[in-house]
Design brief:
Elements: H1 9-26, H2 40-64, H3 70-112, H4 119-135, H5 138-162, H6 181-193, H7 198-204, H8 214-240, H9 242-247, H10 251-256, H11 268-298
Keywords: Germination, Membrane, Transmembrane, Transmembrane helix, Transport
Subcellular location: Membrane
Organism: Anaerosalibacter bizertensis
């Protein structure tokens, strides 16, 4: 069945970018990562170097075993017994992250849009939606990425432009005055370690229409996602202030609520919420899908 399932390099890049920026779109945890000040954008850029180093082993294996997913070549490397244990571990990891993302999504929806709606109702709707999309398969997920991710990225770029009047870039001066070499590097390493979407990429490899593009896909998705996260950090800190941004529950959402263009464009946060919901559904769907793929391959079931 795998021979009939294909996803393009472009679709894969969009998927990894979307998966990468969803958490930033929600909590923007990088704001509180060391050094935790006006130099965090530098730390994020530096994290690309550490991410490449930390992801190299999986990239190497992905290039060596292009016909196999991460779970399948664990069998080849460690044997059937340990391979099954590792495969089950990855399956549970993907499922765990899907559950975490669902809980984050429900928390934000319940606190911002549906405060009177029981959490179980919101959770059920999200789970049913994600399971349905996941059931449609990888090609459907790829086509969805091709349609929605450019829209998501466009909104992320347009919102800061609309909010230029509330941005104070003087908060970033003086550069590197309050940060040590150790803090910036420890923060960059922390961000690099959290690039867990490399595991999704490792699962996608045998489904790629051009498997030789694996390294290009990784580099492009890494660079583009990092630049987007830097943009988010810069506009949030410039709008809210360095300290206030660190204490905001949903920093980028808080920034969008400040935007008021010539007294004409209001409620920009509504657009943000719609795009945010779409991006979260995409990520949850992807992790649910690969959780089932990992489990089926661990148990040696076809599908």
């Amino acid at each position: 069945m795998r021979d009939n399932i294909r996803i393009t390099s472009y679709q894969t890049i969009l998927l990894i970018i979307a998966f990468r920026i969803v958490l930033a779109f929600s909590y923007l945890p990088a704001i509180n990562t060391p050094p935790g000040n006006q130099d965090n954008w530098i730390m994020i850029l530096l994290s690309m170097f550490y991410t490449i180093i930390l992801c190299f082993p999986i990239l190497f294996l992905g290039n060596k075993f292009k016909d196999f997913t991460l779970v399948e070549y664990m069998d080849l490397i460690f044997g059937k017994v340990f391979g099954k244990i590792i495969g089950l571990f990855y399956s549970l990891i993907f499922l765990l992250f899907a559950i975490i993302f669902i809980s984050i999504m429900v928390e934000i929806l319940d606190s911002t849009i549906f405060p009177e709606t029981p959490a179980w109702v919101t959770s059920s709707l999200m789970i049913i939606t994600c399971i349905y999309v996941s059931y449609k398969g990888l090609e459907a997920i790829g086509r969805g990425a091709e349609i929605f991710v450019p829209l998501i990225l466009a909104v992320i770029i347009i919102i800061p432009i609309l909010g230029l009047d509330v941005l104070d870039f003087s908060v970033f001066l003086p550069i590197l005055s309050d940060s040590s070499f150790k803090d910036i590097n420890s923060g960059a390493i922390d961000i690099g370690i959290k690039f867990l979407d490399i595991l999704i990429l490792a699962m996608i490899v045998p489904y790629l229409d051009k498997r030789e593009d694996l390294n290009k896909i990784f580099m492009k998705s890494l660079v583009y996602s990092i630049l987007i996260i830097v943009l988010m950090i810069v506009v949030v800190q410039a709008a809210l202030g360095i300290e206030q941004a660190k204490h905001a529950n949903f920093p980028f959402f808080t920034f969008t609520r400040l935007i008021n263009v010539f007294e004409i464009v209001h409620r920009i946060e509504s657009i943000y919420v719609i795009i945010w919901i779409i991006s979260n559904i995409g990520k949850i769907t992807g992790y649910l899908f690969f959780s089932t793929v990992a489990l089926s391959q661990t148990l040696k079931k076809k599908g």
